What does this fold into?
Amino acid sequence: MNEENHYPPEQREAVYRVIAERRDVRRGFRPDPVPDDVLGRVLAAAHQAPSVGFSQPWDFIVITDRARRERIAALARRHRDQYAGELPGARARSFDRLKVESILDTPVNVVVSCDRTRGGRHTLGRRTQPKTADFSSVLAVANLWLAARAEGLGVGWVSFFDERELAAELGLPAHLEVIAYLCVGYVTEFAPEPELATAGWARRRPLSWAVHAEQYGRRGLPGEEPVDPLADVIAAIAPLDEAAMTAARERQDRMTKPRGSLGVLEDVSVRLAGLAGSCPPPLPEPACVAVFAADHGVHARGVTPWPQEVTAQMVANFLAGGAVINAFAAQGGAEVTVVDVGVAAELEPLPGLLPRKIAPGTADFTEGPAMTRDQAVAAVTAGLEVARDLVAAGNRCLITGDMGIANTTASAALICAFTGADPAEATGRGTGIDAATYARKIDVVCRGLARHRPDPADPVGVLAAFGGFEHAALAGFILGGAALHVPVILDGVIAGAAALAAAALAPDAIGACFAGHQSAEPGHAITLNHLGLRPLVDLGLRLGEGTGAVLALPLVQSAARAMRDVATFDSAGVSDKAP
Ligand SMILES: Cc1cc2nc3c(=O)[nH]c(=O)nc-3n(C[C@H](O)[C@H](O)[C@H](O)COP(=O)(O)O)c2cc1C
It folds into this structure.
C-alpha cells in the first residue's frame, strides 16, 4: 500500500461517510435561506468535476424567484400526473404516496445544463463518444450533491420535465441541454435509506450482482471466487417456514368465519406465510408478468399450422398493449414485461422489452439437442436475473408468461422427460390442430425422447435436449422468485414444464409456486399432479401468454389480504362456538 498518498483514516472515513449518507431528499425541507457563501462552495465543488477533454460543458442556473418556481412546478406536475396515469394498479397506489419533487418547498433550485459543443470539434475523447459531454455534467451534479450533504443541505433531483418546455422557461439557448433540475435546502434530517427503498418501491441490488471479473457475466467481488448465479440461487432456496405456517393455520381458525370455509384459499394464505416467513404474509403486490418469448427449431417438423413469424409479431403486439395478456393484466393491475430469450428475428428496442436473446431460436430436437448445455445455463441464468431485477424494482409477485410458436411440442417432450409420461397422453393440440398434425406432433415427441434418452436427474441436460429458451428462462425465473421468497404464479403447460425443470434443480422452489389455472392441454394435468400443485381456476383456457396466471392474481392477493384484514373471534368479540 502507498503510505504517502492516502488520507489519514478519519478523513478517509469522512469521504466514505458523505458518499453513504448523501440522500435524494424530498421531504422535511426547512424554509431557511441558503447563505450565498455556502451555495458558492457547493457550486465550486460542482465546478471541479472531471469533464471530457476538460471541456467543462456545464452551466448552473440558480433559481429563487417564487413565481418562476411555481410555473416550473406546474410543468413537472403535468408530467408526473401523466406518468401516474400509465401505472398499473398497485404501482399507481404506491406512487400516489411518493413525493417526487420539492420545487416550492426549497429556497433555491439549481439547473445543471450541458453544452455539447463547448471546446470545438477536437475536444479530446468526445469525438468518439459524444455522450461523454452529458456524463461530465452529471459528474458536476454528483459533486454538488456530495458537497451539499457535507454542508447539511438536502438535494432532490426532479426529472419530470419535457426538456424543451423547461429550457424555454429558463431562457436556455437551443444548443444547451438540461441535465438536472435540483431542489436545494436545509433539512430537519437525512434518511438512512433511499425513500424509494423504505417505501418498498425498489431495493438496493447487492454489490456482488454488479461486479464482474474480466468479462461481463463472471460476477464476483475482488479476491473472491466468481459467483455462480444458478448455484447461488439454488443454495438460497429453503423449505417453507414451518412456524409461520403453523401461525397462519391457527390464525385462519381464529378468523371470524367458519373453520376451513375459505377452502383452497386457506392453503394459499398458509403457503404465502411460509414463503415470507411471517404471519400474516405481505400482500403479493405489485405484480409483474414476464412473458418469455423464443422460437423453436422443431417448428420445421410441421407440428403447428402457425408460421414461426407469429412469435415476433405477438411480441410486438404485447409491447403495443394489444394482446389478451395486456387486457387481463390491466384488469388485474399487473405490469407486463416481455423478455426476448430467443426469438428468431431482430426485435426493435421498445419500452417494456428486455433483450436477453441467447440465440435466434433453438435447433430441431429431432435432429440433435435443441441447445447446448451452456446455452441452457445461460437461459436459466437470464430468467433468474429477470426475477431478481423485477423484485429489486419493487415487485412482490411474479407471474409467468410465454410466447413461442411450437412451444407446446417442446413442453410435451419436457413433461415426458421429467415425469415419464407417455407422449400420447402428454401431447396436446396446442392452439388447435387437425388429426394428421396431432399424430405428427406425438411422433415428433417420441422421436425426440428416443434420440436423447433424457435423464430427469440432469435437468440442464433435459432442457438442452428439448428447449426452448423460454422454458429454461422460466425455470430460472421460478428459482429466482423462490430464492427471494416472492410468490410465483404459474401459467399453463409451458410454465408447468419449466416448473418441472426448476423442481428438478431445487425441489423446494415449488413452495413458492401457485398454479394459476388448469390448462386444457393434457400434459398440464400430468405436470400439476407431479408437482403436487392445485390449479386456482379452471376455465378451459389454452392461450398461454400468462393469461391464466394473471386471472388467479386477485385470488392469491385476496388470500393474503383476508389473513391481514379479517378480525379474529377474540378481537371482534364474536363467539366462536357454533350453536
Ligand atoms: C438521473 C436521476 C433522476 C432522478 N429523478 C428523480 C425525480 O424526478 N424525482 C425524484 O423524487 N427523485 C429523482 N431521483 C432520485 C432517485 O430516486 C434517488 O437517487 C434514488 O432513489 C436513490 O436514493 P438516494 O439518492 O437517496 O440514494 C433521480 C435521481 C437521478 C440520479
